[in-house]
Amino acid sequence: MPTNKPELVLLIAVSAVIALLFPLLVYYTYPATNESEVGLENILEDMLVKPPPFLVGSMGYCMHRGKELINRFTVKGFNHVVYVHRLDRNEPALFVLLPLYREENTGRVVTRNQLRQLISRENVVVLAEVFETHKGKVYVIVEARIDGEVYYAVKKFR
Amino acid sequence: MDAYQLLLVALNAVCSALFFYISFKFLTLYLRIKVGYVVLFSMTFAMLATGHVASSLSVLVPEPRLSLTLYTLSSSLASSGFFVLLCSILYASKERVFALVPPLILIVLPDMVAFMLSLLVTILARGRYLKGYLAVLSLAYLVRGLSSLLIPLGIGVYMLLASELSKMLVTLLFAVYHLGKVIKA
Prior knowledge:
By secondary structure, chain A is of the alpha+beta class. Chain A folds into two domains: 1-30; 34-153, CATH 2.40.50. Chain A has helices spanning 5-28, 53-63, 112-118, and strands at residues 64-70, 73-78, 82-86, 91-97, 100-103, 109-111, 124-133, 136-146, 149-153. The termini of chain A are far apart. Chain B has two domains: 3-92, no CATH class; 101-184. In chain B, 88% of the residues lie in helices and 0% in strands. Chain B is built from six helices and no strands. In chain B, helix 1 packs antiparallel against helix 2 (36-60) and helix 2 runs antiparallel to helix 3 (64-92). The radius of gyration of chain B is 23 Å and the shape is flat. The chains are: A alpha+beta (158), B mainly alpha (185). At the A-B interface, helix 1 and helix 2 of A face helix 1, helix 2 and helix 3 of B.
């Protein structure tokens, strides 16, 4: 036991620093993903268990690679994710849709299935958050512009 | 929520309940006998228990950012708790040589971080000679860190000297090897 007060104060201060430094660092350096990393749950669907939130969080923290605008692609197929071919880079890509989207002007809410049908049309521009996962680059769609209509992803938590 | 997450939460809840109980027992013991370091024991177990609470919250909170923060908090609280436990053991023991341990941890920590990072670099590096050099360098940091920890025991002094020497020798060989290549070119 520390015999005097300064030693006890020092002990408590050091242990508080050890306990709080890393969580605070993680919290304040977390990238601005706009909560799109929850879309990565679809990528982990072949896991034995449902991915816990901290796993999704660590994927969002470590694998986020910024935003990208994609305007030339053709839809190749889909199950729970949309497989597309990017014409601007001539490479295949994986699109992941979030559960709900809202149209900016009318306020109409569409589900991921409805939006999936919409983005298979011509002249579609999507804004996606890019994640570099073990399955290659994954594009989580946060915004889609289709024939003058703009669809934004509805945030899940807030 | 699926079975795995439910299991995690349940196990964490049981662990934190047990740790809180131990902490409470130590606190009542302190109130009876008034021996200082028992309070630190109580503090350690309270911290471990709180760590487990944070761990189960990291499964329950759906927001990824907050969840990851809680996930980090659970392990940092545990290390903080073990730090307090270490200090209480050191103050309780009569062996003065163990008073060296807290500053030693500070010295060892950069060595261990260097070891882990250089190991990663070794795995990722291309080229046989570079890989070999990095492997030895990485091992040298590990030995250096371990030997600093073992200084109070005597054997650590020789380990420290040996690891420094081997690091220098390997660096020299590596430099000479590359010098040879440059001169040939």
